[in-house]
Amino acid sequence: MTQGARIVALECQDIRFPTSLQHDGSDAMNPDPDYSAAYAVLRTDLPGPQGHGLCFTIGRGNEVVVAAIEALRPHVVGRSVDELVRDLGGFSADLVGDSQLRWLGPEKGVIHMAIGTVVNAAWDLAAKLAGKPLWRLLSDMTPDQIVDLLDFRYLEDALTRDEALDILRAGRNGREQRIEALQQTGYPAYTTTPGWIGYSDQKLVRLSREAVADGFTQIKLKVGADRADDARRMALARDAVGPGIRIAVDANQRWSVPEAVEAIKALAPWDPYWVEEPTSPDEVLGLAEIRRAAAPVRIAVGEHVANRVVFKQLLQAGAVDFLQIDACRVAGVNENIAILLLAAKFGIPVCPHAGGVGLCELVQHLAMFDYVAVSASTEDRVIEYVDHLHEHFEDPARIVRGHYLAPTEPGFSSTLKPGSLRAHSFPYGSVWQAIRA
Amino acid sequence: MTQGARIVALECQDIRFPTSLQHDGSDAMNPDPDYSAAYAVLRTDLPGPQGHGLCFTIGRGNEVVVAAIEALRPHVVGRSVDELVRDLGGFSADLVGDSQLRWLGPEKGVIHMAIGTVVNAAWDLAAKLAGKPLWRLLSDMTPDQIVDLLDFRYLEDALTRDEALDILRAGRNGREQRIEALQQTGYPAYTTTPGWIGYSDQKLVRLSREAVADGFTQIKLKVGADRADDARRMALARDAVGPGIRIAVDANQRWSVPEAVEAIKALAPWDPYWVEEPTSPDEVLGLAEIRRAAAPVRIAVGEHVANRVVFKQLLQAGAVDFLQIDACRVAGVNENIAILLLAAKFGIPVCPHAGGVGLCELVQHLAMFDYVAVSASTEDRVIEYVDHLHEHFEDPARIVRGHYLAPTEPGFSSTLKPGSLRAHSFPYGSVWQAIRA
């Protein structure tokens, strides 16, 4: 059916949502984000589904990611659809390996995020053509097919191809039961909705109580701007939810290494479940030191970690208790699978970063694949959830009793509705025109 | 004279040189670079000098850096020139601290390189207005003025503000003699001109001999594509220059950690002076392991190191023997001064990366400031030199008997000639039109 079909265009759009007006998404480092997406469509000459991908940003600079996606066009347009979906490892390697574009990273920042967007769009296309949600397409691949997707360069001292195969082969045991469990109860979630730093104390307390009533067993608060505020808000939240609910805190990189140790000890009386991004995400050594000094409080990091090489080192250095993958920071599905396998090798649970726009929709597929084929467990594992902007997606993330329901629609759940695209196109969509008026 | 003057525009151009036609600049990771510059001009309403900055890239994607520079325009246009040049620390902090643009890094890749371009353009303007070459402007600042330029966030566990002040105060001793030495004999250089991987054996031998005849005491070869080629070329070069000349080798990130150890041991018989970028520049732990396993061969790294946080860790982990700053990778002069101070704290010599287009012109100023005010030594220190594309600059780097002569013209030596800008504007300049025809 797809024989002879080609990718005929790579279309890009700058999509922004004016979230800063409500302080939604505010934290100590990012006081006024406008959640945005550099949005890419791999258009084929087939009448049916196209490949949709997005890179989440927080406003200004979204156009720079669009420019970087456009720089990838020569690698994409004209390709055979059949060959593309048959060799998504080769496709990813072509993009990452462009010897001139590589200079802009290497393998980090804007160019890497743009590659991730296009690779993810190709996976959306592949899953739609296969008639499966992405998590299921990945879960149905053989261990050999999975490792063929991966770039082991720079990983061999921590994870060889054979070790990856062993992990995936072990993951075949109980696979069917785990698929069934996902289809019945979904994957556990936690919510950051109550804890944005710009929210009032009353709103924090009200939303914390609502989260528990909605079935969540873990919430997250933003901290790091002011020590006294952090303590007061943590106490309020603990009081609101009681001792049985986990409260994670997120410092969004605000502290130096010694500051972090002190700040974490100050929050310890309220039993934080984890402390997220206490310092720079580039701090392999510093995070390891913070973790040792702040024990038994646990450390989570990953949403801003640039690539698999840094994730590898965080694991090697014993710097993390929870690894937080992000669907849009690294070079897409392929690199995230490598990171899931690294985490499994080191026995560290993966608790994906989400929120923003589209991050929940995307990353749920990776966590569910992790459960079915890699970690084989949901113990100590949760996907972040924030109740923003899901209404703009064709196949939105669905939460029931604190769990992500397993997606059933074919694809990567990354398709924005045409009306949402039109209204939020920056700077001339109707939403932005209305704000200026 | 500048009272009331404003920055009235931030102009950007995409400038490319078709260097891939001659294999100039070819290495194992970058076989066909077209040396390029995302070029920025801070235009004032003064009749006199303007601020010129550039970000070196190797071709495709140069337009992405241009887009990122343009994203910085709101931070720049309308500023008072007086206030800008009086508080270049605050200016840099404003750019690095943009809470939305920060998401695109943080502090790495395209957005960080764009910030470096604009910060460097501001320094060019400041130096021109002061009537001094940049190295001299910096060398004439007091220790307190210098530390006010720096962002110590994430550095405090390795370098405090007080420690930086101590280093700079110690650097006042013998300052005048070092300035005089620079003005008389310049700063030692080494040359990579002979060693590009795409050059024939004959060309390698001929250029190696010429380098020695020209007064260089160190050359550099590109390795890492093929083990047998590396050994043959190393043997040819050693034979051509004799035992008294240092031969550094550069693997341009081609190896994994275990491969690097093996490859370095295989080259050891020809006495490599250092091995550069044996693996990923993100590999703090891996580089430390390579250095231990490959001793006494020395390790050099830095041209692709994303920011001061990673440099700090390379020093903390004992991963490097030589630190190679780059003028265009981090956030400009300010962050590079922080890196020079970190290196001084750890007693590691800085040997700047150069070549490309404009890198020699820019980085010589930083190395000379290092000598006058920070390290106070040129022992074991050399600046890379490649004899490409200097003719396009108003104030080109000048090499005599293997030394960079101290620049005397006001500014950062970053101004391209108007005719060169016109001819190499991509894709419609005359040089590119001729190639297409």
In short:
With 437 residues, chain A is an alpha/beta fold.
Structural class by helix and strand composition of chain A: alpha/beta
**Overall geometry of chain A:** globular
Helicity of chain A, as a percent range: 40-55%
Largest sheet of chain A: 9 strands, mixed
Strand content of chain A: 5-15%
Order of helices and strands of chain A: EEEHHHHHHHHHEHEHEHEHEHEHHEEEHH
CATH class category name of the largest domain in chain A: Alpha Beta
The total number of structural domains of chain A is 2
Q: What is the radius of gyration of chain A computed over CA atoms, rounded to a whole number of angstroms? A: 21 Å
- Specify the oligomeric state: homodimer
- The whole-number mean of residue pLDDT values of chain A reads 96
Q: With helices defined by DSSP (H or I, 4 residues minimum), what is the helix count of chain A?
A: 18
Number of distinct beta strands of chain A: 12
N- to C-terminal distance of chain A: 49 Å
Query: What is the architecture of the largest domain in chain A at the second tier of CATH?
Result: Alpha-Beta Barrel
Largest interface: A-B, 60 and 60 residues
Annotated CATH topology of the largest domain in chain A = TIM Barrel
Q: Which consecutive residue ranges of chain A, at least 5 long each, have pLDDT under 50?
A: none
Give the name of the CATH superfamily of the largest domain in chain A.
Answer: Enolase-like C-terminal domain
Catalytic activity (chains A, B): L-fuconate = 2-dehydro-3-deoxy-L-fuconate + H2O
EC number (chains A, B): 4.2.1.68
Protein name (chains A, B): L-fuconate dehydratase
InterPro entries (chains A, B): Enolase-like_C_sf, Enolase-like_N, Enolase_C-like, L-fuconate_dehydratase, Mandel_Rmase/mucon_lact_enz_CS, Mandelate_racemase_C, Mandelate_racemase_N_dom, RHMD-like
